[in-house]
Design a protein that fits this description.
Length: 63
């Protein structure tokens, strides 16, 4: 049972997540030879205060 975890900044709509879930599920099923009911996609919204790259918080770009 494939589980795909997507971590991203907040702000995507429910419709965008639905579209991503369908597209990701299709690809996983085609490549891993599994079925949609065996494929799980988990979305986690991560605050920019909790996301850092190159030693700098993503939220610092907003300051």
């Amino acid at each position: 049972m494939p589980i795909v975890r997507i971590e991203m900044w907040p702000g995507r709509t429910r419709a965008q997540k639905r579209e991503m879930a369908r597209a990701i599920t299709d690809v996983v099923c085609n490549v891993a030879h599994t079925t949609p009911d065996q494929t799980i996609v988990v979305f986690t919204d991560v605050s920019k205060d909790d996301w850092a790259q190159s030693g700098k918080l993503a939220s610092e770009d907003e300051d």
